[in-house]
Amino acid sequence: MNYRSVSELNRDTRQLARELPDRIDLVVGIPRSGLLAANLLCLSLDVPMTDVEGLCEGRILQTGHRYDGAVSFDDVETVLVVDDSVDTGRQMRETKGRLAEMEFPFDLEYGAIYISSQGHREVDHWVDVISKPRVFEWNMMHHPMLKQFCVDIDGVLCRDPTREENDDGPRYREFLTTVEPRVVPTEKIGWLVTCRLEQYRDETEAWLDRHGIEYENLVMMDLPSKEARKRRGNHAEYKAKVYRRTDADLFIESSRQQATKICDLTRKPVHCYEENEMLNPGHLDRAFQKSSSYLSRFSENPLGFSLKASKYVLNEGYYTLSRLTERRGGK
């Protein structure tokens, strides 16, 4: 699983700022997540910023007292329209189509911090090519990919119970009923996987419904008591077993210790929500898994797989050559 945090986005945005030509006078963000990249970029470049709507309406966002220049479209010669990432290019093409209908007195260039292997067709500037599967910190809990994820409840969707609340009795039931959510995903989750006991399913389902958290499956521990669960002491093993038998692409786990063990047992990626870190299985394991997958796909459809592989190699070669040419000043 290829992952980028907000910290890495900031680092890579600064890299783009260093590589851009000096002629950029205004940065335009494509809503919503493109605004995050645009904000970081305009601060690095020390130029004003707006969004696509503002560009069409002739509005520039207020800059505060630290910006030295007077903000006016009269002084703008080149505008950079930027998004955080370009995958299929649909959003970027729609934006280009809309802006092409306007009669701007300045040049438009297009950029993204991250692109897919085919994304280079839509942008003039980019930093890195991120292949799938991929997920970003800033939209992970609100992305359609959630339907392919396993997600822990306590420590992710809500806080963990305190020792006093975790009495396996009335205080615990009150916690399950009244705890406030930390995050309410806006997409349906594939599998909620929790060490809560099956006897608390009614309270858990009611809480999820009350807060509008949608999911396909709710997997709970089928044990008679908290003491039985403690004696087992197999929280990570239990979650790993569930993760293995699903076709989920990622497990989002709150505990670093459990996240590490789940990753080790399944050889599949796990995101530690507590520390905002993506844990991936070892490089050799990933290479072996990919090789096995490629051999299987080739044996099933030799011609189709070969055609797709050829197209991928051509795309990879194009953007690699483009990046080398740009960095050597030959563009």
From TrEMBL:
The keyword Transferase applies. Keywords: Glycosyltransferase, Transferase. GO terms for molecular function: glycosyltransferase activity. Coiled coil: none annotated. InterPro entries: HAD_sf, PRTase-like, PRTase_dom. Residues 13-103 form the Phosphoribosyltransferase domain. Gene3D superfamilies: 3.40.50.2020, HAD superfamily/HAD-like. CDD domains: PRTases_typeI (cd06223). Pfam families: Pribosyltran. This is Orotate phosphoribosyltransferase. It comes from Halogeometricum rufum.
